[in-house]
Design goal:
It contains 21 helices and 14 strands. By secondary structure, it is α+β, with helices and mostly antiparallel strands. A hairpin with a 4-residue loop joins strand 9 and strand 10 (about 385-390). Helix 6 packs antiparallel against helix 19 (about 645-655). The longest helix is centred in the middle third of the chain and has 32 residues, at about 320-350. InterPro entries: THAP_Znf.
């Protein structure tokens, strides 16, 4: 359809009709049009684009004049072979002057209201075109082989399917059939799609509404269009009566997942209308793919969502369809998004000097029977996850060796991208210590891991009879180890400050070690003289045995003086939202959920503190279980953002679904280890059932 600024080519046409028709492609018919336009004086150079408005055609040439005059069509369509014959358009204007600009249709009204409402619907005027059927586009709903217009079919409130991409393989376009039969009512199970007219204009598809409609939403992508929950009875009210003859119609509906197709056929005047609840991309309903992507990208469980839908009596597709969407579109998009972001981050790190990273492994289950181990490498200066490595236990001979393998892969990647490390901060895993020492990488230990181990030992000592006095020093000892790490620059200085606590608890504040000769606190008289320990007592002996242990002193010398891995632990808590430990995922599914957790953390880790309406910072009180009744004051952060989800949806709908081949190839390049059960002998099912024995059936 040409833009509205194109004038009618007939000289002297002042009352131009909004329905403009372009010169036909047929040469003989084109000459007839030109002869009429130029009054048998056709020039040699004819403009390529000429339009004639509908006022210059007789009523016999108009295919839908009745529907147009009744207000059920937004524009006029020409019959094949029509030629303009009316130079004076007065007669046609009088014929079409009764066109109404408002349509009263059925709506989702409450049954208790007796008054009628004039409202808009989710139907486009295109569904009310001429009453004709095209046998060339009849098909069943299961395959969704629908003829679609080439115009912009993502227009708001239109049921027109989207044009399929020529790049996308036909096999991948086929939507998996549901196990249950499609729901039908009243008539046959065929869906009849109407032909698209060459003069079809999506911009003119509109209905009357009680509220103004923003026409700019027509350019909105499919996945950004608002969606609503519609009850079946309210929806079917719109199709019960024929809009032309006002008599009852035959209505049938068919469903595929969240997609609903309704066909209205009038047996009296042969009026036909087809309506789809959502656009069709290629051969896949957009709502089905969007729901699968929303469930996956938000870290939700399909089975939980399925239960919610079942409780609300909402229709949803099967798990196999969800897995197909994930395999072909969602997981390739996640892998592509993460790798592009990671490549940019590593490029920035390669231009920096003295990069300090923190690393730690998270097992998918407690104990030594974990299947997966995910190693996280984080840039502690920017609090950003830069690498994730997923290791399966059968790759390294057991779950105990997964952390070392994950660290090795991460360091190899950083070296390959030219990242120069100043040091790495980890826990005290023995294999990690030896590997980093052999690789000549400077390693520091996270303070919290050492403090946690020491506190557990001291808590047990305080439970021994006669050692209760030691409990008064627990908080001071915890604070002392953090102060030791933060205020020291060398290993011997850290050890000297750490061992000074053994003199301090005896009320001795001058020490023999020259690296820390005296306590830095001011001299003051204590109110509780009973808190001091004596060297020859059981509490002091137990305390000295823990704090002066050779391994503890060795580890204290390597305490991190600047950054800690607490942010890595915070990221591990985020992973629980995307990959709970009580849910089993395949290797690729686990890897993609780790990538989603990293994208979410990197986007929201630097959120500022929330403030009140007056600009006052907001805090909250928390009572952690581990603190045993003690409270903590914590900052309240601003709301989380999910920009990565919007970017992934754009990638899925605009690129991956259109041509998934390069994205799928990227996923196929990932090494996926064999399943743990692949090393087991698989018995025959009949044999396994026959040998099944329980305690109650020997």
């Amino acid at each position: 359809m040409p833009p509205r600024e194109h004038p009618c080519a007939i000289l002297g046409c002042k009352a131009q009709h909004k329905s403009l028709h372009r010169l036909p492609a047929n040469e003989q018919q084109r000459l007839k049009w030109l002869s009429f336009i130029f009054e048998d004086k056709v020039p040699e150079n004819v403009p390529k684009l000429l339009y004639v408005c509908a006022n210059h055609f007789s009523v016999d040439c108009l295919e839908n004049a009745g529907q147009y005059n009744s207000g059920f069509a937004s524009k006029l369509f020409l019959k094949t072979g029509s030629v303009p014959t009316i130079r004076d358009p007065v007669s046609l204007q009088a014929t079409t002057s009764t066109k109404s600009n408002k349509v009263d249709v059925a709506c989702q009204t409450e049954p208790f209201h007796t008054s009628l409402h004039s409202v808009g619907t989710q139907l486009s005027f295109r569904t009310l075109q001429a009453k004709r059927r095209s046998t060339s586009v009849q098909t069943t709903i299961s395959s969704f082989e629908l003829t679609v217009p080439s115009a912009s079919s993502t227009a708001f409130m239109t049921s027109t399917p989207l044009k399929p991409s020529l790049k996308r393989p036909r096999l991948e376009l086929e939507e998996e059939e549901e196990e249950e039969e499609a729901e039908e009512t009243l008539t046959e199970s065929k869906i009849i799609a109407q032909d698209s007219d060459v003069t079809f204009d999506p911009a003119e598809e509109c209905t009357s509404a009680t509220e103004p409609t923003d026409l700019s939403i027509q350019e909105c992508p499919v996945h950004n269009i608002a969606k609503f929950i519609v009850y079946e009875t309210c929806l079917m009210e719109l199709f019960s009566d024929c809009p032309v003859c006002q008599r009852r119609c035959d209505v049938k509906s068919q469903r595929l997942g969240t997609f609903l197709s309704v066909q209205q056929v009038c047996p009296h005047c042969e009026f036909v209308r087809k309506w789809n609840s959502q656009p069709i991309i290629g051969s896949t309903p957009a709502g089905n793919l969007h729901l699968s992507a929303a469930v996956y990208l938000s870290g939700a469980s399909f089975f939980v969502v399925e239960k919610v839908f079942a409780a609300m009596k909402l229709h949803i597709f099967k798990y196999n369809s969800f897995r197909r969407h994930a395999r072909l579109c969602i997981e390739p998009a996640i892998v592509h998004k993460w790798r592009n972001w990671q490549s940019e981050m590593l490029e920035q790190l390669s231009r920096r000097e003295n990069v300090i990273v923190g690393g730690d492994m998270r097992a998918d289950s407690p104990g030594h029977s974990a299947k997966y181990g995910s190693y996280t490498m984080m840039d502690l200066a920017t609090n950003t996850v830069v690498d994730l490595q997923l290791v399966q236990s059968n790759e390294v001979g057991g779950s105990y060796h997964m952390e070392k393998e994950g660290l090795k892969r991460s360091l190899d990647l950083l070296d390959a991208r030219g990242v120069r490390l100043e040091c790495i901060i980890t826990d005290r895993h023995p294999q990690i210590q030896k590997y980093l020492r052999d690789r000549n990488v400077t390693q520091f230990y996270d303070v919290w891991h050492i403090e946690k181990g020491i506190s557990k030992k001291l808590d047990k000592i305080c439970q021994i009879k006669g050692c209760e006095k030691l409990r008064k020093w627990l908080r001071s000892i915890k604070n002392h180890i953090y102060w030791t790490a933060a205020s020291s620059t060398t290993g011997p200085e850290r050890v000297a400050k750490w061992t000074s606590i053994l003199n301090h608890v005896q009320d001795k504040h001058v020490h023999e070690d020259p690296n820390f000769p005296a306590c830095l606190h001011p001299q003051r008289i204590s109110r509780d003289k009973n808190k001091w320990l004596s060297a020859a007592t059981m509490p002091f002996y137990k305390l000295e045995k823990v704090l002066a242990n050779k391994r503890i002193l060795k580890d204290v010398a390597k305490l991190s003086p600047h950054h800690q891995t607490s942010t890595v632990e915070a990221f591990h808590s985020v992973i629980l939202r995307f990959a709970p430990k009580n849910v089993v995922f395949p290797f690729l599914g686990m890897l993609c959920r780790l990538y989603l957790a990293a994208l979410h953390y990197n986007e929201n880790a630097g959120r500022p503190q929330a403030t009140s309406a007056t600009g006052k910072p907001i805090y909250k009180l928390a009572f952690p279980k581990a603190k045993k009744g003690e409270y903590r004051v914590r900052e309240v952060k601003t709301q989380q953002t999910f920009g990565y989800v919007e970017e992934l949806l754009d990638l899925i709908f605009n690129q991956v679904f259109v041509d998934p081949s390069p994205y799928v190839d990227e996923v196929l390049g990932i090494h996926i280890p064999p399943a743990l059960s692949s090393a087991c002998d698989l018995p025959e099912m009949e044999e396994a059932i026959s040998s099944r024995v329980t305690r109650f059936n020997q």
